Amino acid sequence: MKKILLPLAIAMVAFTGSAVAADKVRIGTEGAYAPWNFMDDKGKLAGYEIDLGMDLCKRAELECEFVVNEWDSIIPNMIAGNYDMIMAGMSVTDERKETIAFSDEYFPADPSRYAAAKGDEFDFDNLKGKNIGVQGGTIQAAYAEETFKENNTIKSYEKPDQSVADLAAGNIDILLADGSFLDPVVEGSGGMIVYVGPNVQIGGGVAIGMRQKDTDLAEKMNAALTEAKADGTVDKLVMEYFKKGPFYTPAEEEKKAAE
Amino acid sequence: MIDTIVNALVGLLGEDWRAGLEYITNGKHMAWYASFKFTLIAAVAGAFFAVIFGLLGAAAKQSKFAPLRWIGSFYVNIVRGVPDVLFFIFFPLAFEQTVEYFFSRARCTAEEIANNAGSWPPCDAAQWYLSGNDYLILACVSLGLVYGAFAANVIHGAMISVPKGQLEAAQAYGFTEKQVFWRFKVRQMWVYALPGLSNVWMLLLKATSLLSLLQIADIVLWADRLGAPNYLARAGLVHPDWRWKYYLALFIFYIIMAMISERVFRALQNRASRGMVTVN
């Protein structure tokens, strides 16, 4: 038996060892968060962040590749080195800043919104006995826990799709998520899913997440981002995918600097 | 090539079928079909490892050398008692970290280890990248380890069932102990082991649906992606929650696999019983 197992073990180590040398810069994304990042009909990753990420890498003269990782483990797996950056619609928060570093934002702070089935009415100042859906590990999840936990049930989903599916199926009353993610859902549902209640501003802008020690990479990406904002590429992509903006024209940038 | 097939089928069935056929042959669906290979590889390689670990475990369990016997019993009893899902996510991670620990001992300087006490691994050189394929191998080994424990139990029982007279006769003819073990005990025990092993195989086959836990883009993960409701025309066909349709397809796949397995095991049983006088 030993004679069989030993070469097998060696072959395994040799095979797995081949992946150690990775020159490519790898970008982790969720691949299930349209229009930010999703699988298109060809089975390839597509979306605002895929286009932007590739553009930024070209500017920074890096060879990049996107890898799909579940949202709930996207930060630990970057720290563990499975990939070097995160572009997954991730808002900058103080809590996240403790573990990872962020680039400049590539999408301004996006208000979170409540979606519900058509015809349902809610008193948001006094919400009671409702099932509220969020995606686990998001800024909305933290907000919902803090705000509604006492009198309502918070249902946390692993994937954004599941939360929308459960809202459509009536398993939750309200879904709290990024407006940019809910827009196409509300629009595409044919009036079955509508916005309710106020907009809430929770996190900061969306930015690239990186390991805190990778300061060189952060510099490169920020330089590329500044360039892409200045020549209108970022605004063009935002308009293409979100029908919003422009956010980063010289006039807008000046206004922000003045604040 | 796919276009040709679609066109041929549309010619056969009529234009009404075009949209549907094009939908189920788009790139996303082709990726799903391709991902079945991971499930099949995991099942076959997992079974291969399970038989090896099973034989080793069974051999250890009836060894004359007590510590080996303890190891055998420990393996069979402990691993069988751990939920397969848990072991499945535990083993690859633990293995990776262990390898990285040895890498860090060999490749990191003492200074780096002292400076990076909080983070893992302590230096970049100790970083061990695992791609999807690597995880697939580790998944196969984990499946082998878990179901090897069950197989060891089955094989142990089968070995005991081999009539003593056969082995004594072999000894009387002057075969060495090793020869008796491999050429008589192991050769004959398959008849008794196969029914039990077919059970273990069925469990293993079902456990291949866990691959997505290790971030392998397997059939379950793709079914999830394909069935998820889509409201954005850019991202493909707009449809409500269709996950049940895709899960149903997976049900059918596993049922077909079970039916094929049953036939294969019947054939194996017939083959193993050649020239043997068995009760059944």
Automatic annotation (TrEMBL), chain A:
The transmembrane residues are: none
**Which terms in the GO cellular component ontology are assigned?**
cell envelope
Report the domain of life of the source organism.
Answer: Bacteria
- All copies of the Solute-binding protein family 3/N-terminal domain together span 24-245
Q: Pfam families of this UniProt entry? A: SBP_bac_3
Checking InterPro entries in the record gives: SBP_3_CS, Solute-binding_3/MltF_N
Alphabetized SUPFAM superfamilies for the sequence: Periplasmic binding protein-like II
Quote the subcellular location field of this record: Cell envelope
Per the record, the coiled-coil ranges are none
Give UniProt keywords alphabetically: Signal
Q: Where is the signal peptide?
A: 1-21
The UniProt family comment states: Belongs to the bacterial solute-binding protein 3 family.
Report the PANTHER family cross-referenced here: ARGININE-BINDING EXTRACELLULAR PROTEIN ARTP, MEMBRANE-BOUND LYTIC MUREIN TRANSGLYCOSYLASE F
Instruction: Tell me what this protein is called.
Output: Amino acid ABC transporter
Q: Which organism is it from?
A: Leucothrix pacifica
List the lineage, top down: Bacteria, Pseudomonadati, Pseudomonadota, Gammaproteobacteria, Thiotrichales
TrEMBL record, chain B:
Q: Per the record's keyword annotation, is Transmembrane included, yes or no?
A: yes
Q: Which InterPro entries match?
A: ABC_transp_permease_HisMQ, MetI-like, MetI-like_sf
Q: Name one GO biological process term.
A: transmembrane transport
- Keyword set includes Transmembrane: yes
PROSITE patterns, alphabetized: ABC_TM1
Q: How does it sit in the membrane?
A: Multi-pass membrane protein
Alphabetical keyword list: Membrane, Transmembrane, Transmembrane helix, Transport
Domain of life assignment: Bacteria
Q: What is its main location?
A: membrane
Give the Pfam families listed for this entry: BPD_transp_1
What are the GO cellular component annotations?
A: plasma membrane
Q: Which residues form the ABC transmembrane type-1 domain?
A: 36-265
The subcellular location is: Cell membrane
Instruction: From the record, give the transmembrane residue ranges.
Output: 38-60, 72-95, 135-155, 190-217, 246-265
Q: Which Gene3D superfamilies match?
A: MetI-like
Q: Which family does it belong to?
A: Belongs to the binding-protein-dependent transport system permease family.
Put simply, this protein is called ABC transporter permease
Originating organism: Leucothrix pacifica
